[in-house]
Amino acid sequence: MQELDHKAMGLRIRKQRTFLNMSREELARKVDITPTFLADIELGTEGFSLKNLNRFCHVLKMSADAILYGPKDYMGTRYSEVLELLERCPREKGRYAEEILTLFLLSHDPVE
Fold first, then answer.
1. Where is the HTH cro/C1-type domain (predicted)?
2. CB of 53 within 8 A of CB of 46?
3. Of 24, 36, 75, 87, which is least packed with CB atoms within 10 Å of its CB?
């Protein structure tokens, strides 16, 4: 069983919050915690409940697995970085990301 790394979890939360252009105060309000508690979570000095994990997932548009353990490593490739970006993509923009990737793949010759 993989141990939880609270500092890494906090960093992933902060990274996604800034990716979504959300202030600490705004995220704290949406998750229903104090900005100070959120700062402690982002620094990895405090943990949080399953209830708050669920709220983080909803507000940050991330899976619980992505928050707790980070991106999956797919055979040591950069696929994990692309998949992490897609996981972080807000639902309403997800179809655009899919269209862009599809168009990119259709317009480029495969590398031999």
1. 13-67
2. no
3. 75
